[in-house]
């Protein structure tokens, strides 16, 4: 267990990158949206206030940071005689703890956002749309669930890049486009977009924002572990 913690601490060697960059990017996005809503009547013109997808910048940046963490730190970890298994477990530990902590911080920001009337300009940035729930504990789950999925995707992409290089990355991109495009064609052919929308609409927010990301994270964790076992530095 101590070696797993050692592997986890490797990710915090440069906290300005691991923790600072995601919040810097999200902070800039928030400042831009706040200025736009303050200078216009965007929030007042929308029933219930206005919201943007700007908080997605936080999730996307965390994903990229974890890609870099795997590709850059794995060789270093193996140079310190840490096994692939130890590095993977340490990375997974960081992902889980970070997702939980980010969920708490985001829940706090959503609470402040609600108490201040959307920062005084009717802006729902940190908890847009249905991602704004009433209970604080549920808000932690709703905000932290997608973060866990983002970290898992980042780890998975990093493993692909380390094991198969650029060819593997492009194969992953093309394969993802083919699968998603094929599903879109299938749903269109079946004329099932309305049924699909109804199904999602009937699901609870916790199911979509926590349950689905948890399933995705578990699947990606298994695939990433299978891939990293044969990865060379």
UniProtKB/TrEMBL annotation:
Coiled coil regions in record: none
Signal peptide, first to last residue: none
Keywords assigned: Membrane, Transmembrane, Transmembrane helix
Residues annotated as transmembrane: 12-39, 51-74, 86-112, 136-161, 168-192, 204-228
Protein name listed in UniProt: ABC-2 type transport system permease protein
